[in-house]
Design goal:
about 350 residues; two-stranded antiparallel sheet; two-stranded antiparallel ribbon; 13 helices
């Protein structure tokens, strides 16, 4: 095998990255992209997992029913088809009936509708997450993941489309959506916010219940910066959108989203303690919810090669996906307008 080696010297220590041509039947190993380069974890407790690790040569398509990417694709295709048929598509789904019911309750006031969303979604999403230990005992981990994911996806779709369609409703304090400087700042913050996804999201096969879902205890990556990165990311995303569109409707919706994630910090810590006990308390002592707080206080020490924990394949996928979502904004807006203007098709399948 031909090996390509690049070496550098940091603080007197020599470190090398090896990029090897593939073994027979394998794929090329590209440092950071297709194969994780581990950081120095000598100062870690080593009781939590290393986040975002990836080696493309450990992955395989497999056969249907096996724990490979073919089964993953089939599982994702099945659940998304179910969401579209049973919820999104008005003639067969119930999203239009649901929105119609909420608007009737709210008397047509979009503020009250988004407030109801802000109450229902946390109850369903965080409630089912909290019931996970009991639910997994009854139906198993994979089935419970589907039970958890389906209503969460349906409600998320409806709330997102409703927000896009009504973002400019209510009292308008300002509108910087057409200001190039404000747009550039907001775009940058939005882009960075997606790098604060919780590391468990990277385990796509667990997300799709192809592999048994597990409540992982992470110790590296963004967890060193903040123990609840998704709360921070949601705050960044919400602040950027509110900076662009300063309406009372957008302000209320953003406050509800951040409020839910703030609650999830407490609820997440509670769930982790129930699952991992003393190990979680040790990780908690070395981390913080407020970004960089534990580092400033000296409770968390970043390794000299910390960059290796961020230059990993999953983050490249996030970057590409975030750019794709940005360029898809006109289609999102068109889809939300279509859902709003299509009217009510009573009932479904």
């Amino acid at each position: 095998t031909l090996s390509l080696t690049t070496c550098s010297r940091t603080s007197g220590a020599k470190s090398c990255l090896h990029a090897a041509e593939p073994q027979e039947g394998g794929l090329p190993e590209i440092p950071f992209v297709t194969k994780t380069i581990e950081s120095d974890r000598s100062n870690d407790l080593m009781i939590g997992e290393d986040a975002g690790t990836f080696n493309i040569n450990n992955e395989e398509w497999g056969k249907l029913g096996e724990r490979g990417w073919f089964t993953f694709s089939a599982a994702v295709g099945t659940i998304m088809t179910a969401v579209i048929v049973l919820w999104v598509y008005h003639p067969t789904g119930y999203s239009d009936d649901f929105i119609y019911a909420l608007e009737n309750i709210a008397g047509g006031n979009p503020h009250i509708v988004t407030l109801i969303f802000g109450i229902i979604f946390p109850i369903v999403h965080s409630g089912l997450a909290s019931l996970r230990p009991l639910g997994e005992k009854v139906v198993g981990a994979r089935t419970w993941r589907v039970i958890f994911a389906f209503p969460s996806l349906c409600l998320a779709y409806s709330w997102i489309t409703y927000f896009i369609a009504h973002a400019h409703d209510g009292i308008e304090f300002y509108d910087l959506s057409h200001n190039p400087t404000a747009h550039s700042i907001a775009w940058t913050i939005n882009f960075l916010s997606f790098f604060f996804l919780y590391p468990s999201v990277f385990n796509l096969k667990e997300v799709a219940a192809v592999e048994k879902p597990t409540l992982h205890l992470w110790e590296t990556g963004m967890i060193r910066i903040t123990r609840h990165p998704q709360f921070v990311g949601q705050g960044m995303w919400s602040a950027a959108h509110l900076a662009m569109v300063g309406t009372s409707f957008t302000a209320l919706t953003m406050a509800l989203l951040v409020g839910h994630h703030a609650f999830a910090c407490w609820n997440g810590d509670r769930r982790y303690y129930a699952e991992h006990g003393e190990k979680f308390l040790q990780v908690k002592e070395r981390t913080s919810i407020v970004p960089f707080q534990a580092i400033i206080e000296g409770r968390q020490v970043l390794p000299d090669d910390y960059y290796k924990e961020l230059l990993r394949g999953p983050y490249l996928v996030i970057a590409i996906g975030t750019l794709g979502a940005y360029f898809a904004h006109p289609y999102m807006q068109a889809g939300s307008a279509l859902a709003k203007n299509a009217g009510l098709y009573p009932g479904g399948i």
